[in-house]
Design goal:
Helix content: 40-55%
Radius of gyration: 17 Å
Low-confidence stretches: none
Mean pLDDT: 94
Order of helices and strands: HHHHHEEH
CATH architecture: Up-down Bundle
CATH topology: Four Helix Bundle (Hemerythrin (Met), subunit A)
Length: 179
């Protein structure tokens, strides 16, 4: 059950960091949010959209697992993003509404997984049509690490605009054990 507990911690961390990143980004103008800053996905809006695109792609893949069909049914109904740099939402407010929805779905999904579920593997196709079969738990880790990677890029872009994002350490939400 340790892995499931770890994923629950990661889903809580994901929600908190996304709340903070959208709060920090909301202090910027549309021009600042959309400015091409030379990042992988050009701008803050582009990078935040890419995180969502990645989440949708992976959650749709996870939704094929029998344990995930119900909790990820909203995701399975979404259109597949056309490209990794798709701009699903051009306005931060719209993007944030969907981000909150996705983060809550991720929390419910992770909370519904059992230790047995994550011992399975998932077969999926990448965007080029190549077929893979990989361990479920490793792919869940990838989902969270992908978000962390690109949120790190956004915090750098925010810092370049003199917006202090604050602490990003996971230790902040790890509960103390009884001594």
């Amino acid at each position: 059950m340790l892995a499931v507990n770890q994923f629950q911690l990661f889903s809580e961390y994901n929600l908190l960091m996304n709340q903070r990143i959208y709060g920090a980004a909301s202090r910027l103008s549309d021009n600042e949010l959309n400015r091409d800053s030379g990042a992988f996905f050009r701008s803050i809006i582009g990078t935040l959209n890419h995180i969502m695109v990645g989440d949708i792609i992976w959650l749709k893949r996870f939704s094929s697992h029998p344990s995930c069909e119900h909790t990820l049914s909203y995701i399975s109904q979404l259109n597949n993003p056309k490209a990794l740099d798709s701009l699903l939402y051009r306005e931060l407010a719209q993007l944030e509404i969907e981000r909150v929805k996705l983060d809550n779905i991720i929390i419910r999904w992770i909370n519904g997984l059992s230790a047995q579920d994550i011992k399975d593997s998932i077969t999926y196709y990448n965007m080029a049509g190549d077929k893979f079969n990989k361990p479920f738990a490793s792919l869940i880790s990838h989902l969270f690490l992908h978000q962390v990677h690109h949120r790190g890029q956004v915090t750098t872009l925010l810092a370049q605009l003199d917006v202090n994002f604050g602490d990003t350490d996971l230790i902040e939400i790890i509960h103390d054990e009884d001594i």
